[in-house]
Structure formats: C-alpha cells, structure tokens
Amino acid sequence: MGWYGLEAFNSAIKRTKKSLAEPFDFWKWIRLGIIIFFIGGGGMGIPNFNFPASWQTDDRNMEAPSTQEIIGKITQFWYQYQTYILIGLALIIFIILLFTLLSSILEFVFVESLVTNKVAIRAYFRKYMHPGFNLFIIKITLSVVFLSLFILAMLPVFRQLPSGTITPGLIFSSILWFFGIALIFAVLSGIISSFISLAIPVVMYQRVGIIMAIKKVVRRFKEDWRQIVVYWVARFFAWIAGSIVVGIMALMLFMVILFILLIPALILYFILSALGQGSGSFLLWAVMIPYGLIAAVVLILFLLIVSVPLPVLMKYHLLTFMQMWYPDVKVPFVEPGAGSQSST
C-alpha cells in the first residue's frame, strides 16, 4: 500500500489537463474563476517587524502616550462617530455573512462541476442550497467559537497593559504573543477546514447531512490517520510550489497584457493632445474613461482565468485521494474529454 496523498497527484494532473485544455473553453474557465473567487484560496504571509536599536538607548527619550490617554481618545472617537461606526459594522457583518453563504453553496457547486466536467452554476446552486446552508451554519458557528477563544487567549495581553506608559518592550512581547496565538489557531482552523472539505463529497454522494459526513471522515481518520498526515504535508508543499509557479507566470502575462493595453491608451492620448484636447477636455475623458473600463474588464477576466488551474488541480487531488482513502464514497467522475460542457 502506497501513500494516497502522493499517488493522487498523477490522476489529478491528468484530469486537470483534460478538463481545462482538451478542449480549451474560455467561458468554462471564467465560470470556474467566479466560483473560485467566492470559495477563496489564498496564502499566508508573515510580516517582518523591525524594531530600531535606538529604542533601547538612553540617549533618546520617547514620549509614548499612557493607557488612559489612548482609552480616552478611543472613547471620544466612539461617542463622536457612534452611529456611523455601527452602520459600518452592520454593513461589514452583512457582507461577510452573504459572502460566507455564497461560498458555502459554491463549495458543492465546485465539486459537482469538476466531477461532471460540466460547469452549470445556477443549476448546481439550486441543487445544493440546502447542504450549502447547513455548511454555512457550521462555518459561522466555528467562526464565533474561534473568535471567542482568540479573545480569551489575548486577555493576558490586555491585563499586562500598565497604568503608565506603553513601552516598546510591551508592544514587542504583545506582537509575539498575538502571532503565536494566531499561528496556533490557523493550524487548528486548517485541520478543521480539511475535514470539512473531505466531508463535502460524502454529503453529495452518500446522501447524508454535513454533521454525519464530518463524523464519518473523523471516524475514517482514526482508522487510518497516517494517510491523512501525508495528505496534509503533500498538499502544503504542493500549494507552495504551485503558488510560486502560477504567480511567476501570472505576473509575466500580466505585464505583457498591461503593456499591450497601455499602447492604445498612449496613442489615443497623444492624438487627442495633438488635436488640442488637454487634460481638462471633455472629449479626452469621454474617450479615455470608456477605454479604461474596457482595460479593467480585460484585467479582471485575466485574473479570473489565471486563478483557475491550481485550485482545480488541488480539488481533483482531494477527490482522487478521497476515492482511494475512503472507498465507500463513490465519486462518479465523468472523465474529461468525453463531451465537456459548460452552461450557466
């Protein structure tokens, strides 16, 4: 018996190649890009904090505000802009909830699109609204739990705030504590997210609820946890390597497209300038603004397209691994190349 997390890449690469390139379907890529945009993907960067050595010298006196002064300014700001702050927070929360709901349903849409090799967003969206909503409830519940635990973990930092001056040493130790706690929660969140992602095919192809599907995956994990650990490690390095390769290629293509778009813009600008249409001319802006909008649409379409291959590969890898690791889940793949279709 080999390691399924490594062996699954071979089939995943073949399926990705056939699905996306045999034949190439522009609108299929765009629809997949829209789905991936809402699902998210992304990486994690570690900020670099540099504290000048001069902060530790006796020759330089720093007048840092006291805790009472900071709290006083925050309180004053709150009372002055309380209504606007509450409206802004309500709007942000609404957008987050809406985005989370859409992404939860589109998780199922993404899997179905790759399994059937047919991207039908509206049809699959209606089909998976109920399990998607259940996943949304779980995500919100987990978010509240994690946020509450994070706040509790940060309480020691707030208790250390002195009644006097906030020192650079206190700031530095607080930052270290913050990122240490954030790293722990990021790992825990990643593990839970992985179990949820593995549970989605179980929901779809064993006709069970999301909670039962997660329990099945966890039960299978207890029986064969080594395969999952190798799977996690393999995907971690695959995401890093894939992100670097795709990022370099995307940057190069982006510069080429941007250069191509700039040439007509400069030509139009110089022609209009030669005709006496300066920066204050209505004609200049009437021509350049529509062209700018067209260029923006082209760049957005480009970003949607370049965002497709890596997530598609990794999702095919997950589904292929699931077939090997959990044989009871029968993923009904329609092999790419056998009549690829896409619709709204």
UniProtKB/TrEMBL annotation:
UniProt keyword list: Membrane, Transmembrane, Transmembrane helix
Superkingdom in the source lineage: Archaea
Matches recorded under Pfam families: DUF7544
Key word rRNA-binding present: no
Membrane-spanning segments: 26-46, 84-111, 132-155, 175-208, 229-250, 256-275, 282-306
InterPro entries associated with the record: DUF7544 (IPR055966)
Protein's name according to its UniProt entry: Glycerophosphoryl diester phosphodiesterase membrane domain-containing protein
Species annotation: Candidatus Methanoperedens nitratireducens
Biological classification of the source: Archaea, Methanobacteriati, Methanobacteriota, Stenosarchaea group, Methanomicrobia
